[in-house]
Each structure stands twice: as C-alpha cells, then as structure tokens.
Amino acid sequence: MSNPVYLALDVPQLDAAKALVEKVRGHIGGVKLGLEFFCAHGTHGVHEIAHLGLPIFLDLKLHDIPNTVAGAMQSLHVVEPAIMTVHASGGRAMMEDAKAAAGENTKVVAVTMLTSLDERDLERTGVGGTPHDHVMRLAELAKDSGLDGIVCSGQEVKAVHKQWKDGFFVVPGLRPGGKATGDQKRVVTPRQARDDGASVLVIGRPISRADDPLQAAREIEATL
Ligand SMILES: O=c1ccn([C@@H]2O[C@H](COP(=O)(O)O)[C@@H](O)[C@H]2O)c(=O)[nH]1
C-alpha cells in the first residue's frame, strides 16, 4: 500500500519548500500545495514541486458560481494535479461543473466543514446541528454531484466511509499526540484517521515546523 501521508507545504519560500520535500520524500506519499503556496508561486511553483516526482494535491478550495469555478478548473489543467478541492457549500451545480471541467486524472473532492471549526463556530454561521450532521449532509451532496470524495476531520471519516464505501476521503487536522493545538479543533491521530477509512492523511506543521522534520516524518510513518 502506498504511503497515505501528503505533506502540507505551507512554506512561503520556494527553495525552502523544495528542500523540505527532498528531505522527507522517502516518508511521504505526496505533497499538498494550498493557498499560501499558490498565492506566492502560482502554477510555476506547482511545476517546480511536481518536478520532484511526487503526486500533487492542489488545495485551492474553490468556491464561486459554477461558471467561474469550472473556468478555474480548466485553467489548472496545465499543472495536472492528482487531487483538487472545491467547497461543498458552493452547491450541487458548482460541484457538477467543477468535476466536468477537471482533467480526467484529477480527483475532485469537496471540503465539508473545516477542521478549524467546532459546533459553536457552526452555530455562529447560522448552521444548526452537530459537525457530524453537517459533514454527513454535505458528503451526500458531494456524492450526488458526482465528486470523487470529500475532505472532513478524522472525527467524521468513519461514519462517512460507512455510507460511501468507494469514496475518496482526505483528512487534515492530524496531530501525532491526538490533541487539538493552535487553530485545529477537530483533531485525531494519523493512525486513527487511517484506521477509520481516510484515503489521504494531510499533515503540515507536525512535520514542517518540527525541529527535525525528517525524524518527525519517520515517526509518523512508523505509527501507520
Ligand atoms: O478542513 C481543512 C481543510 C484543509 N486543511 C489544510 O490542511 C493543512 C493542515 O496543516 P497542519 O499544519 O497539519 O494543521 C493546511 O494546509 C490546511 O490548509 C485543514 O487543515 N483543514
């Protein structure tokens, strides 16, 4: 089985980002490039990282009217990402058009509820119910819209996997100690997420901000 860990490369300098990937490449299965990286380095930066030879997950969390999101997906064919994200709350038509516009080798997955949010945050946005209810509802919408899977926390992945057997599940908000730290609120360990059905484990700061990123990546891999 291939390594499910995708390193979140939220690092502003391109050279430092490349050096980090080179350092830990034997202990990860892919690289996740998000808004911080893309705003700084654009498609040029994506190509530079892709040249290192690992699969690329482009996490831009697109959320706009269907025509605009479909146009953005088309424009990103040049970088051929293995995985792309849109927001499930963009609605069915947006997700259908995003999937139709994506390259044939790109999995499109929908962000349900950010792992930095909890039930109180949800309530403040006017959404009632628990994170579990909200994630399940949006997962069903993503499935009906023809997407490949969703992004959710490790606290929901087991339930979603039960209902969507062949879905592709991306789980961020992972902490080796299993404790919520900093901005991440719905947290589990990488091992628990894997055991509960995650397809991809997104891990950033526990590796990138570790005193010894190589050792941190090795230790996480050993738990899986
Ligand atoms: O719900 C979500 C969706 C995406 N992310 C992204 O994952 C990484 C997590 O980084 P850590 O440093 O391991 O916290 C980051 O790039 C987020 O943009 C998420 O955390 N939660």
TrEMBL record:
Residues that span the membrane, as ranges: none
Annotated metabolic or biological route of this protein: Pyrimidine metabolism; UMP biosynthesis via de novo pathway; UMP from orotate: step 2/2
GO cellular component, one term: cytosol
Active site per database record: 59, 61, 64
EC identifiers of the protein: 4.1.1.23
MF terms in GO: orotidine-5'-phosphate decarboxylase activity
UniProt domain Orotidine 5'-phosphate decarboxylase: residue ranges: 4-220
Residue numbers binding substrate: 10, 32, 59-68, 115, 175, 184, 204-205
Keyword Lyase: yes
Signal peptide range: none
SMART domains associated with the record: OMPdecase
Broadest EC class assigned to this enzyme: lyase
Record's keyword terms, sorted: Decarboxylase, Lyase, Pyrimidine biosynthesis
Biological process (GO), any one: 'de novo' UMP biosynthetic process
SUPFAM superfamilies the UniProt entry points to: Ribulose-phoshate binding barrel
One Pfam family it belongs to: OMPdecase
Catalyses which reaction(s): orotidine 5'-phosphate + H(+) = UMP + CO2
InterPro entries referenced in this protein's UniProt entry, alphabetically: Aldolase_TIM, OMPdecase, OMPdecase_AS, OMPdecase_bac, OMPdeCOase_dom, RibuloseP-bd_barrel
PANTHER family named in the record: OROTIDINE 5'-PHOSPHATE DECARBOXYLASE
Role: Catalyzes the decarboxylation of orotidine 5'-monophosphate (OMP) to uridine 5'-monophosphate (UMP).
HAMAP family the UniProt entry points to: OMPdecase_type1_B
Subunit (UniProt): Homodimer.
Family that this chain belongs to: Belongs to the OMP decarboxylase family. Type 1 subfamily.
Full protein name: Orotidine 5'-phosphate decarboxylase
Organism name: Aurantiacibacter zhengii
